[in-house]
Each structure stands twice: as C-alpha cells, then as structure tokens.
Specification:
- The structure is a homodimer of 348-residue chains.
- By secondary structure, the first copy, chain A, is α/β, with parallel strands linked by helices.
- Chain A has one domain: TIM Barrel.
- Chain A is built from 16 helices and 9 strands.
- In chain A, the strands form 2 sheets. Chain A has a 7-stranded parallel beta sheet.
- In chain A, strand 7, helix 14 and strand 8 form a beta-alpha-beta unit.
- The longest helix of chain A has 25 residues.
- The radius of gyration of chain A is 19 Å and the shape is globular.
- The interface between A and B is medium-sized, with 31 and 31 residues.
- Chains A, B: InterPro entries: UROD/MetE-like_sf (IPR038071), Uroporphyrinogen_deCO2ase_HemE (IPR006361), Uroporphyrinogen_deCOase (IPR000257).
- Chains A, B: Pfam families: URO-D.
- Chains A, B: Catalyzes the decarboxylation of four acetate groups of uroporphyrinogen-III to yield coproporphyrinogen-III.
- Chains A, B: It catalyses: uroporphyrinogen III + 4 H(+) = coproporphyrinogen III + 4 CO2.
Chain lengths: 348, 348
C-alpha cells in the first residue's frame, strides 16, 4: 500500500481525489479494543509506553480507513516537565495538585527539553512515522486552554480564576502565556522532527472568551506561535472548540494552514468569517453519529458540498467522539465521505 | 417611594431617564443572608414557602437598588405537577428519578393547573406585587432547556440523548415540545394574572444546537409560545444563554419584546443580528465582577454606550451571578449604570 497524502494536500489547498477525513478522539472509549487496554493501563500509562501508544494510535486508522492518524496523548502531557503536578481522573479530567495562581507559581515553570523530558512521545512518533501509511498529526493544547487547567486546578465551567488573573494581573497572565507559547513551539518542533506530518493546536475552551478579550489576552500568543512555526514544513491546524464562532474573524491573519470549527457555524459561514487564506476542517456535531443514517448522511453531504466550494477542506467532527458512538457508524461515515466526495470531484 | 417602572419602559422601547438594570440570579449564594437561609431550607423549600420566597426575592432589590425583581424559583418547579419526579442536588443541579425517553413517558405528562398545582408560586407573586416598588419578573425554562433535563435525567455536557430523540424520533420530540410549550404558556399566564409585570423564558442550553437544528426542532415551539402570549399586556423576554449568538438571526420574528444575549456577542452586533424589532438585554460577562473596578467600569460603559444607540436596552449579565461575586461590586456597578446612563441621556 502506498502512502496516502490526501490529508496533507487538502491542508495545503492542493488538488485531491477525495475529501480526507479523520476524527478528533478517534482512538478512545467507543472502541472495544481501547476499553480492554484501559482495563490494564491508565491513559497516562498508555502515553508513556511507546509501543502500546503507537498501537492505540494506529487502531482507528485500520478500523475506519481514515486519512490521518492523530498521536494518542493528552494536552496535559507537556505540562509535567514544566513543573505541573497533575493526574487525570476518570470522568473528571485533569486535576492539579496545586493550581498556579501567583508570580512565584508562574516563575517556577521551566521550558521543556523534549528529547530529555518527553522522549517517550518522540519515540512513539518515530514508530508511527515508520509504520503508518497516512500522515501522523502531532498536537498540543493552546495557551488559553492549558492555562485554564493550570489556574483553575482542573476542569471548569466558568473559568472564574483564569479570567480573574487575565483581568486583574495582566502582566502575570502575559508571563504565563509567554511560557506556554514557548513550550508549545518547542514541543511541536520536536514532534515534527520526530516525524509528525502535521500538527494541531487544541484551544478547546477559548470560546468562553468574548472576542475582544481573546484579542487582547490570547491572540498575541497565538500569533507568535504560528509565526515561529511558519518555516516548519508541515501543515499547522488550529481548532477553537465549543462556541468559538465569534472568534473566527480574529484568526484571519494567523499563520496556520487549517482552521478547525465547531458545528454551530457552517463550513460556508466559517470560510466567510475566517477568509480564504486557510483550509477549513470540521464540523459534524458528534451527536449526529447517534442519529439515523439518513439524517447523518444528509448532514455529511451538506458539509462536504460546502467544503468543496473552495480549495482546502478536511472532514472532521466539531468535537471529540463520545464513548456512546457506535464504531460501525464511523466506518460507514468515513466510506461515505470518501465515496461521495470522490464522485463530486470526478464530475468537476 | 413611588413605583419605578423604568424597566418596563425600556422593554417597550419607550423613553427612560436611566438604563434599568437587574441581574440573573440576583438572589443567591453570593449573599450572606441567602447562605444563612439556605442553612435551614433547601432551594425547593424556599420556593414553596411564599413569605420566605418573597423575602429572598426582595432582598437583592433592597441591597442593590436594581430596577426589577425576579421571582426566586427554579426552572424545574412546574415540571413537578406535569409528572416529573426530581430533586435539586447541591453543586450538581436537577436530577430526575426516571428520565423521559419513550412514547409512554411523554404520554404520561399532563398539563399543569397553576391555581391547584403551583398555588405557592402564585401566592408568592401576589405578596411581591403588593410589596415591591419595582416590576416583578416571572419566569420559566424554555422547551429545549427543560427537555434536556427531562431526557438526560440531569445536567449534561453534550445533550447526547436529547439530540438522539430529536434526530431519531422527531414525532416524539415534537410531542414533548408541544406539551412543554403548552405548560409554559399556561404557567406564564398564571404568573402574569397573579401580578408579574414581565416574564422571561430561559433557554440556557439552546446554544448547544446548530442554527438549522434549532430552526427545525425548537423554533416552531418558541414561535407558538410567544404568539400565544402576544395579547398578554406585559413585556416578554427571551434569553438564549451560552453561545446562543448563532441563533440570534432566527429570533427576529419571535413576538418577544426583549432578547437577552450572552457576552460573546456585543450589544451592537446583537442588534444587527436580531434586527430592530426587539429591545436588548445583557450582557456583561459575570467574571468581570471579579476584575478590578477600572476594568469593570470601562466594560460597563461600553455596554451602556452601545445599549443607548437605539431605543430599548436593559443592563444585565450574560449569565447568572456566581457565588464568588462580591456583593459590593454589584452595588457599585448598579449605581454606575444608573449614574452614567443618566448623564448620557441628559446630554441628549
């Protein structure tokens, strides 16, 4: 089997024969095999055992026939070597031993040395780069999203303490953003050197911010990150998560290649807001995977039709897969995206 | 002291001397007095003791000097007499004994008879209508938001089962919407007859829906509710909650008087999306109440300035007050809204 680089070409707005597709959290609890592995290993253990982590990463590629793999990991992983003590608690998420709230806390954060600190991640990527016949997407959390866990001490509904630092101690906030920004650039460059064919930055909670707050407190760091990654020769994807629709106009001049959007904004409307410099990735509501096939099919068709209105489109969900999603629906959807988009592109 | 009807005039886009202000969850855990009462009574007990409930409702009006009171209650209250068995669990929210998921469940729901079933609510309103010197806002949850609790069995992050019913059993879903719609009209009419000077429908979770899903599965019921309330001579407010920004264009022809928006969309942008038929209410991010005063003041000023660009504006938050908010900040903000808007209006 030859290497399938459709995903990369779509990211770069080049010609394609079908719309490429992958799914956020395509390795996860909806898979029986994954649930079996999780009986013996915690999520973080899997991340730290390169052979096992590679196996978990490859499994959905084999099962679903998707056009890209995404490194199995967690956005908290690079925070460990920065000095953040955390654990990931089932059904709750990442919980910190001590939240980061004052100048000393922030000053204590050091930059990572991926070859030393996160060798298991790089080793996993090296295995995957050898074994996969599709591109591997490396990833990291974005500064706001990572900061929200660090300042709150865990998942949050309202991000009260995070915003309190942002509004009340902007210098401290900026130092935190700066440190996270540097870590992200270092980490992604190391992932790319190890063999990642693309990278995605997950800003899952940025949609909690009013656009002007995002602009003032987050945008400068995102701008810098993508600038510093500009010369790195792989596609960069930025994903904004739940209710990020109001932020899209601010993404226009970020040096990312692909912008991932959630289901509240259509692909057409997303392109209108972001402008045509970027490819678009998205945006099926994952709950649709529990709908009758006819409903799911017509929604997928609409997304693909809009996606093909301009060069540069990657089919994905607007949020990670839920454990409740049936794997056979995902397989059927993947086949449909390939076949339907192939037929449309062949007619053109 | 004479009756202050500024809030009603703003809702109806009439002339005002200052911008009226009230806060969602203005009676709540941020108040020491409320916390004391809650040591002796559960939330639902307070709702069921008219004298106590009226006291809790009046307290923030006295403390803050706001231009409207909002009935202390919970959106679950009218679901009890429909046949929903639930409890409200501290820090979790409403939890149902049995979720509503099949045709029999939905068929078992009966309409309420407020005079019989919810006499304690009407009695509370009667007390408040006598005692208050500002309008009392009655309220209810909206059909989608109520249905989400009923189908999920409690609070949800992803509304999987709710959307599953919507997509997979649209007839069942429509019957549920119809029953909730009828309850809402009956309940609000009874509240208004008892003395509520305005009513608000809270659709806190509607922002989880893509606009086209909202249009297909929720909008028809909202349209009908406001049509059936059209002749009732008090202002009707519709509030869409977190990330409802994408839904605003669909609200344009709803027969509500006021549209409440969250902080992700500015007042100016909200008016642009909804159109000029409605007054606007909102939309300070409540976390701003934990920011330094200068930050809060400049944001409040911006909201007021935009609010005064067209007739019909009510100052509020974009979400309920958090327990962490200091009461003196709310008082200072209330005074500022009154004084600053008064000075602007006097110059015009």
């Amino acid at each position: 089997m030859s290497f399938n680089d459709t995903f990369i070409r779509a990211c770069l707005k080049q010609e394609i024969e079908h719309v490429p597709v992958w799914y956020m959290r395509q390795a996860g609890r909806y898979q029986a095999e994954y649930r079996e592995i999780r009986k013996k290993h915690t999520l973080l253990e899997i991340c730290r055992i390169p052979e096992l982590c590679a196996e978990v990463t490859i499994l959905p590629v084999q099962q679903l026939g998707v056009d890209a793999a995404i490194l199995f990991s967690d956005i908290m992983v690079p925070l460990g070597p920065m000095g953040v003590k955390y654990d990931i608690i089932e059904k709750r998420g990442p919980i910190l031993e001590t939240p980061f709230r004052n100048a000393d806390d922030i000053a204590s954060l050091r930059n990572i040395e991926p070859e030393e600190d996160l060798s298991y991640v790089l080793e996993t990527i090296q295995i995957l780069a050898r074994e996969l016949k599709v591109p591997l997407i490396g990833f990291t959390g974005a500064p706001f999203t990572l900061a929200s866990y660090m300042v709150e001490g865990g998942p949050s509904r309202n991000y009260i303490r995070t915003k309190q630092m942002m509004y009340g101690q902007p210098e401290l906030w900026n130092r935190l953003m700066e440190k996270l920004g540097s870590m992200i650039v270092t980490y992604l460059k190391a992932q790319i050197s190890a063999g990642a064919g693309a990278v995605q930055i997950f800003d899952s909670w940025a949609g909690a911010l009013a656009p002007e707050d995002y602009k003032q407190y987050v945008y400068p760091t995102m701008k810098r990150i993508f600038q510093e990654l500009k010369e790195v020769p792989v596609p960069k994807i930025y994903f904004g998560g739940v209710s990020s629709g109001e932020l899209l106009p601010l993404w226009n001049d970020l040096d990312a290649d692909v912008m991932g959007i959630d289901w509240r904004v259509s692909i057409r409307e997303g392109r209108k807001r972001i402008g045509n410099n970027h490819a678009i990735q998205g945006n099926l509501d994952p709950t649709m995977l529990l709908a009758p096939w006819s409903k799911l099919e017509s929604k997928a068709k609409e997304i693909i039709d809009q996606g093909l209105e301009a060069p540069g489109f990657v089919f994905n969900l607007g949020h990670g897969i839920f454990p409740e999603v049936p794997g056979d629906m995902l397989k059927r959807l993947t086949d449909y995206v390939h076949e339907y988009s192939h037929s449309v592109l062949n007619k053109q």
